């Protein structure tokens, strides 16, 4: 954020192109921006120093010089004005008292509000200083001797050894220029400390004189009446901050027009983000474990057949003896189509004048709820049609019995689902407590409550009762579904509304209950 805070100064000349002065007063409110305080030590110049320009009235298109030195506390500064029409004009205006104040432009990086609701800037980088006619800090002054961090004399003027070293560090001269000028200097000779000469009085406060001297406070106050920020400048500050989406900058810029005056929220308003993410159980673990859903065609039932008695092939003696035979039988299998639906009567203003993504967000939420409903239905049907194996005292005993049972009928143990309480028991097993096949080929994920044993995935399911296990061969059941769910939009013109409806159709057909089992795990230790 770019702000300006002014320091009234009297400008003095170390040579005919160098100006020195106080750029800011710390720890006191500015006179033209009520509620803005710049804390001592908060300002930092850009590096190298000459990147910070001296402007006229904060006009980026009107540079007149650049920064060459700042004091340790960043209160005072020195500028060099190269020869040229703009710089000559700036020097003349300073000498004549037309523009003899300084105003800094800086970017706020850290700030807070004090008990009086003043904005206290605690860290900032200043990137320009401007010559102005009426600065805002009435109490700032000029010092004849400043403790500058660097005090290089600009290019084109002879410099001593210390000035050359400082200029090289500040980047205002190159290494080659430094070495050349250093070689041309005479060897230093010891000298006695110089006694400061009496400074001749300046013709008047604010005028460039041969030697700088302090200006009485009364003289400073006489020409530093606070000036209000123009409406144009305020609008520019606020518009630039809004364009950058810098809300802190907007609040700072509006200190002259306080936030309470912006009741219409023309500049500061709520940060509207639209639909927010919410956790939702949209995965369908059991349905996905059954494989790709089959499409629903027509009718309200799914029908098929299965062997009641399979053809039996036996040993045969030959020699024209009777061929073994049996009486194969089939049986019908069917499943009713399960229906899901939701309907809503929406005032059409939500569509006509509401957020653009409202309708799509509405459908996403409805489909997510349908997925939960269909997954719960699939789990209910699988458990209802499952073959119930004898209960086991521990989870490990149960897993072992499942493997043996499926192998006995020639089924593949494709999926195992356990109740959430069993997963807690499973995840706490130590390597010493489990058989080698589990200890050497397992990975437990707490992220989604699943485990991998060789090529088998063990997962939890929220629809299982405590201590319950559901296991199946994915060929043991087939999931049928109308995809995607049907969405209906109807206009309710007499009531000025829109009717929204979602309809889902699905069915689960159990092909072989022997390969779809359930088991109860009783109380016991981690066996």
TrEMBL record:
It holds the Pfam family Peptidase_S78. Residues 185-213 are annotated as: Disordered. Keywords: Hydrolase, Protease, Viral release from host cell. The keyword Transferase does not apply. Residues 187-203 have a biased composition (Pro residues). The keyword Nucleotide-binding does not apply. GO terms for molecular function: peptidase activity. One of its GO terms (biological process) is proteolysis. Residues 19-145 form the Prohead serine protease domain. This is HK97 family phage prohead protease. It comes from Leucobacter ruminantium.
